[in-house]
Amino acid sequence: MPGIFRTNARAVTYLAFVATLLAGFYLLELSPLPSWRVPESQSSHAGDTTISFNPEIPPCQRLAGLGDVVVVMRTGATEIKDKLPIHFNTTFRCYPDTLIFSDYAEVFQGHQVFDVLASVDDNLKRSNADFQHYLRLQRLGREGLAAEELHAESYESGPVGKNDNPGWRLDKWKFLPMIVESLKLRPEKRWFVYVEPDTYIVWSNLVRWLTKLDPSKEAYYGSEVQIGSDVFAHGGTGFVMSAPAMRKAADLYLSEPNEWHARTSGHWAGDCILGTALKKAGVDLTWSWPMFQGGNPAELKWMENKNDQPLWCAPAISYHHFTSHEVESMWGFEQQHIIRSMPKAKLESFWTREDKILHHQDMFRQYVLPNITADREDWSNLSPDLVPYSNRKGLSLGGCRALCEAKEECLQYALGPIGCSLGSLPMMGSRVEGIKSGWMLERIEHWMRNMKDCRGKTDWTVT
Ligand SMILES: *[C@@H]1O[C@H](CO)[C@@H](O)[C@H](O)[C@H]1NC(C)=O
Ligand SMILES: *[C@@H]1O[C@H](CO)[C@@H](O)[C@H](O)[C@H]1NC(C)=O
Questions:
Q1: pLDDT tens figures, 401-437
Q2: Does residue 69 line the site of ligand 1, with CB under 6 A?
Q3: Which sign, positive or negative, has the C-alpha torsion 56, 59, 62, 65?
């Protein structure tokens, strides 16, 4: 793997940052007094109380000042009904501008959805079997899709498994046209943030991070993954591009579309094709793990570390594999964080307080930990990493806990059809019928105290 490529234009970035700060102050001054102003007694600590806010004006809307960003959602007709509505109610109300790209043009719940493949060569659509689903969709409309073609799961990258899913096979074709169409529809934007419905962007962090970066440079940020010798930003994790990088990719694609269609046809991952095109156009990926995470906080490996960058210490920009319920839950959590971080004194701005950045460890402390304080039924905390014990007849969750207690490194336990499993890493997990889960809270708190000291390592890992 090549070394990490970093763009460094601190002076320019600093000026841009100062300008944004000033704009931030200006906007804060002009905004009407929020109805959710934090009472003094609750503002200094992340408490258990939920601060109510006017749902018409979620706190994130106070993070104004980044009019040059558009968030681009890539989806498909087979999943739009299940996956988009919760974003309309939550994340989309924070984004200053959005584009929705799908394989079928429509107005969905008041939002314009674009057919990102509309301009792709008709000969290709007629000759490549991947487009059969697309052609049928255009003929019959989204409501014409059979129930078995609809699926609640998002398109997941992977060479096998989803090949029988027509929506998934079409998805890889959307990436390069998406770059072209984004530029066509939003020629004035400087940053393009690409997401999927099961991506969660920690918006309050992203807007602050972007102010440190220089959009006049060719920039391509995301979580690095590799297929063969190709290194690219993982699509579902979300990735960010500057306008100059977009133009490079679009120009290359439009100058030799047949070449890139042939490459796409022979590959399974559209995000990889995009990364390859960028590389060929001279734009390198800036490795942005651990800020960008391909996992969900409910199942992160909190001790992961790469190139001396511990996940635990890094600011959180994105997560992946979110259900609609989790999008809602994390969004609510983030709104509470924003409320609590807002200035008490008038000129002490949210923007200047480094300690208001949400780090992955804050997600553990404030989002995960409160949810693992008691045993849970129909819940799996993914306890796989100590050998499962055979299911002694009639073993109760209490008996399973006793087995955990007897093993010093055990932090959690779960009782399911295969018996009692123990885990040495704390995980929240998610709903699974027929499994019960529990946690050794004191040990987890001890584990947390022993986690890596982040002093001097809590700032943006990419600037
Ligand atoms: C979004 O909000 C509307 C209005 O409050 C509500 O009727 C709808 O059920 C919500 N949708 C989701 C997916 O939560
Ligand atoms: C915690 O559990 C409750 C109840 O299952 C759920 O509604 C909530 O979303 C969970 N919180 C998180 C952070 O997942």
A1: 999 999 999 999 999 888 899 999 999 999 999 999 9
A2: no
A3: negative
Give me ligand 1 centre to Cα 89, in Å: 6
At 206, which helix (H) or strand (E)?
A: helix 203-210
Considering only CA atoms, which of 332, 381, 322 is closest in space to residue 90? 332
What SS3 state is found at 384? coil
CA 64, CA 66: separation in Å to the nearest integer?
6
pLDDT at 85 over 50: yes
pLDDT digits (tens, 9 = 90+) for 134-148: 999 999 998 888 766
Burial of residue 251, with CB atoms counted within 10 A of its CB: 0-12 exposed, 13-18 middle, 19 or more buried: middle
For the Cβ of 200 lying below 6 angstroms from any atom of ligand 2, the answer is no
Q: List, for residues 252-294, the tens digit of each pLDDT value.
A: 999 999 999 999 999 989 999 999 999 999 999 999 999 999 9
Angle between helices 243-255 and 175-185 (to 10 degrees): 120
The Cα-based distances of 440 to 150, 371, 422 in angstroms read 40, 13, 11
Helices (H) and strands (E) in the chain, counts: 16, 19
pLDDT of residue 49: 78
Please answer whether residues 407 and 386 qualify as being in contact, where contact means their C-beta atoms are separated by less than 8 angstroms: yes
Burial class (CB in 10 A: 0-12, 13-18, 19+), 258: exposed
Q: How far is residue 261's CA from residue 264's CA, in Å, rounded to a whole number?
A: 5
Tokens of 283: 């734009």
- Domains present along the chain, CATH in parentheses: 1-371 (3.90.550.50), 377-450 (3.50.4)
Q: How far apart are CA 78 and CA 331, in angstroms?
A: 24
Residue 388 DSSP SS3: strand
Question: Does 85 contact ligand 1 (Cβ within 6 A)?
Answer: yes
Q: Are 404 and 410 in contact (CB under 8 A)?
A: yes
